[in-house]
Design brief:
The chain has 9 helices and 16 strands. The chain starts with a helix and ends in a 7-residue tail after the last helix. About 20% of the residues lie in helices and about 25% in strands. Strand 5 (about 165-175) and strand 6 form a beta hairpin. It is globular, with a radius of gyration of 22 Å. The protein has about 400 residues and is of the alpha+beta class.
Amino acid sequence: MTIIRSIIQDMRSRSERVVQDRAVEAVSDGLSQSCWANMPQELLREVLVRIEASENAWPPRKSVTACAGVCRSWREITREIVKAPEVSGKLTFPISVKQPGPRDSLLQCFIKRNRSTQTYFLFLSLTNALTDDGKFLLAARKWRRPTCTGYIISLDADDMSKGSGTYIGKLRSNFLGTKFTIFDGQPPHAGAKIMKSRSTRLVNSKQVSPRVPAGNYPVAHISYELNVLGSRSRGPRRMQCSMDAIPASAIEPGGVAPTQTEFSVSNIDFFPSLPFFRSKSSRVENFLSGPLASQKDGVLVLRNKSPRWHEQLQCWCLNFHGRVTVASVKNFQLVASPENGPVGPQHEKIILQFGKVGKDLFTMDYRYPLSAFQAFAICLSSFDTKIACE
């Protein structure tokens, strides 16, 4: 283990030095000549397996990402060893936020809101406590227009613009704030159709840099039920999410949801210091796995679990198992809706839950087949004031 520790320390120091050098090709050449690049494959695999097994939580898990940035051989073996969140239950590389969560448990996260800047930050919970610092995952910035509002979602807390290489998607509402569409910055599955937008037209006409991520692939539609009776029927919001990029069969035993395995070219430019994120091929089919269901199979539809009225407390209640401590109309739990089919145990399983624990602090727990990005976008829709729904 002493040797492994020395390797980890060396990898971290190399990673810090590499970050300061923006010449990607020169960095790659330099790393390929490092003293670790020529290790025997059997020994290298054994070392990486031990590192991956020992550093199983953040912040120590950054050692695994450092190993992936050493050279091509280290990168390839690390990618084989590190399993997707669906299997491992761990978020290791940035692409993990675009991959479905664990099948057997909820992945615990929390969202911090900054009211003054209209920004939102998603963190991975490091402990069971609701007050830990967390591991940063995603950030979102709210924008307003006369006819709609929306959120830009980014991998970088300091750069939340659609023209950035850190842009991965957005959420947009209608005029009333009762319907939302989640857009992915890259195709969620093979054959996905892009929605034309102003940014797409600008890129096609070469008015901006072609590196601008102009993808607008609709992956989900969220709708909140109108409260036509107004205050006389005041109660919890009713919402439904149609996950256009996830087949309904994904929640069945053995079901499969499309999984993105690497970022597109425009996002790769954000990680120049880590060759792990650079691939020779940038074709769509190389960073997607898992087909979308055929039209007859339908898409996954989620609905909020109906709360019960507590006579003694005089309020609507849901069991969040201690993860939510403050009553709020924003709180919800989503389960799969049995569209035109029999109700099974898979329809009782909580897929996403969101709730308030402080003035500007909220928990967000999700599982397969949702990704952190999709879950975060759904939760962002709950922050909007919806007078017509309450």
